[in-house]
Each structure stands twice: as structure tokens, then as C-alpha cells.
Write a structure and sequence with these properties.
The chain is an alpha+beta fold. The chain folds into 2 domains: 95 residues, Orthogonal Bundle (DNA polymerase, domain 1), CATH 1.10.150; 174 residues, no CATH class. The protein is 21% helix and 34% strand. The chain contains 6 helices and 16 strands. The longest helix has 14 residues. The two termini are 56 Å apart. The C terminus is likely disordered.
Length: 304
Amino acid sequence: MAQIPEDVKLTIERYLETLETNADYTQVYEDLIQFTEKPLNLNHAGVDELINFPLITPVQAAAIVSHRKRFGLFLQLAELQVASMEPEQIRALAPFVNISPGLEDRVKGFAGKLQQGKTELILTTKRRYPDPQEMYNADLMAMSTRLRYTLPGVYSFGITAEKDPGEYWWHKGPDYFSAHAAIYNFGAVKSLVAGDYVLSLGQGLVMGSGIGIGKSASVLNIKRSQPVVKAYRGVNEFLFLRGMASTLKLTKKWDFTVALASNGINARLGDTSVLGGEGFSSVDLDWIWMDCTEQPMKYKRKTT
């Protein structure tokens, strides 16, 4: 009871005073408290839901449904006066109901926002000057192409293709290819990313920038400033996870994040005094090498 706002307790107490003497006060009280955690949506509740809601009379429930059919969804709680509700009753209802859009409305709204996005096309080139001691079987231009359609804070759809100096643009497939489809702030879904993504987890010892394991520079920060899951749009071929991840808003205080990834990452092993033997030291970024023993200028690639 100490955690329940005074105005909510007062509303419940006044309602209990109007009940019949043989009513189960405990059950009614618990039912009303549940509505403070998950309010009744007046724009999408059916007739039976409205009638069974303790603080709304059957006549008012019928008026709410009739108003929705004639004029559309409620835009603010003050409109409940058309259902013969006094301002005092509307204020008492506020902690237990809402008029937020339902799934169907959110889908329609999202479809409309798809037309508001912005297309981004970024082309970059950079030439590497040859080393006389090295041999290459492809040009020395580093090139990347990034195409994205996005509306910040709502969605992002993008593809990235890139080649390093000495690599082919296409050799049994693209040299490096990345893609993602991400949706943000859609109802209870804070973020949902399919494709390549990065995680930012922990405070102190973290998993950030995909696979950067170690001590965070923001160890003393009280609150993390960046989202836990976000789409990856870079051209670094290692610092990301490939699969699907999502963060869901369970309650006002709790989020739930689940992530699945299929890409493997090569790492270096080294002697560590802590473990008393071999241990993980760093990510192995040296994954392309030349083999001139079997066939001159043959191009090989490590598995990652």
C-alpha cells in the first residue's frame, strides 16, 4: 500500500464504499490494482470489457462504444464527458485506463511512416600504394557502398558492401556484405534487429561494439546512454554479431533482451598469469594472407 499513490488509494476506497456489503473487497481491490499496471484501453476494449470494468457503468460503456463508432477513437480522456462522465470521475479513472493506440493502429501508423523515410547512399574509395615486397592479384583500391532507408528512432533498412586493397569485389560472392532490418520503439518493442547488429551490455565489464570485451570507460556512469541493441552499419568485418536481437519493455523498470548470433570470431591465445596458462587475449584481425608456395599469387582466406 505504501507504494500506491494516494489519489489511487482514495479512488479505490471511495468505490469500495459504494459496493454491496457481501462483496469480496480483497478481490475487487486486487482487480483495480492490476489495472494500474496494465490500464484498460478505452479505444479498443469491447463492450463486455467495459461493462465488467468496476469504475464504468453499463450505460457509460455503451456510450463509449457508440462514440467510437460515430466519431472514431478518443484523442484525450476529457472526451469521456460525452459518456455522461463528470470531470471528477474522469480524473479518478485516469490511473486505470488509457487511450493509447492498439496494435492495429500502430501497424497503420508504421505503414504511414514508411513513406517518411530518407534514402542514404554513401560511396567511398581509397587507394593503397603497393609494397614492393608483396604481391596482389586484385586492384589496390579500397571501396565501399552503403545504402540505407531510415527514419531515425523508428526504423532502418540497409545493406553494405566493401572490399579491401588487394581483394576482388566479387569472388564466389561479395568479398564483404552486411545487411540489417531494424525497428525501434514499436509498442513494447524498444528495438528489433535482424541481420548484423551490435550489443552494449553491462556496466564495468562489458560486451560493447560487438565483441570488445573488457573494462568500460563509463564504469562510473549511473545510466547507460546508448541502446542495448542497435543495427550495425560499419565496414569492419569483425566487430558485429550476425543473427537477430531484440529488447522488450516488460514494465516501467524492467527490460528484457534476447540475442542470437551465428557468426564465429577468431581470437588470439596467449599466456596469462591469471589463468596460469593459455587464455583469450584479443580478436584476430589478421585473417587474410597470401600463399605463394603451391600456386603463385593464390588468394586464401581464413575461416571466421
